[in-house]
Design a protein that fits this description.
This protein is α+β, with helices and mostly antiparallel strands. It has helices at 41-63, 103-117, 119-124; strands at residues 5-9, 14-18, 25-29, 67-79, 87-99, 129-138, 147-151. The chain has two domains: 1-39, no CATH class; 41-151, K homology (KH) domain (GMP Synthetase, Chain A, domain 3), CATH 3.30.300.20. The strands form two sheets. It has a four-stranded mixed beta sheet with strand order 4-5-6-7, covered by helices on one side. A three-stranded antiparallel beta sheet has the order 1-2-3, with no helix packed on it.
């Protein structure tokens, strides 16, 4: 069983989350006047989905001996207009960069994470529609930006 403890820090106008890794904390915004003092709880849910899935992709790609040099996941979530403002749609956009990556293996790794391995996505899937888009880029050897090789997972509903 996983345990996370949340402590209110009224003088800092935030909550602080502590999990199973000693010394690691996350600042979470608390109700107050003024600028944000940490992530919102909703942002943390999206971050959890992205980090969980990215972790899976890194592990899968490593086992397949793919030379991944970077992964960025941008997560967008649409919430209902009424309380409790549940997420209705969550979209993960993966940009995976590496040397001579097999785009099919990258797409398959993302698909495996989304459909089988990521606990956070598995939890929110029952409430929100989850989709993924994948860009595979060749790592720049010298000057210039990486070049997109292939994009998008097929739509599973088609």
């Amino acid at each position: 069983m996983k345990t996370v403890t949340i402590d209110w820090q009224p003088t800092l106008a935030r909550f602080e989350a502590r999990g199973g890794h000693l010394g690691q904390t996350v600042a979470i915004n608390a109700p107050h006047d003024g600028p944000p003092t940490g992530f919102s709880a909703s942002d943390l849910l999206l971050a959890g989905a992205g980090a969980c899935s990215a972790w899976d992709v890194v592990e899968i790609m490593h086992k397949q001996r793919q030379r991944v040099t970077a992964i960025e996941v941008r997560i967008e979530g649409s919430q209902a207009d009424e309380p409790p403002w549940a997420f209705e749609q969550v979209r993960l956009h993966f940009t995976v960069t590496g040397h001579r990556l097999n785009a099919g293996k990258v797409r398959k790794a993302v698909e495996l994470s989304e459909r089988r391995y990521c606990a956070v996505i598995g939890t929110i899937r029952g409430v929100a529609e989850v989709s993924c888009v994948v860009d595979v880029r060749e790592a720049a050897v010298e000057e210039g930006e990486p070049v997109a090789l292939e994009t998008a997972l097929p739509d599973p509903t088609v």
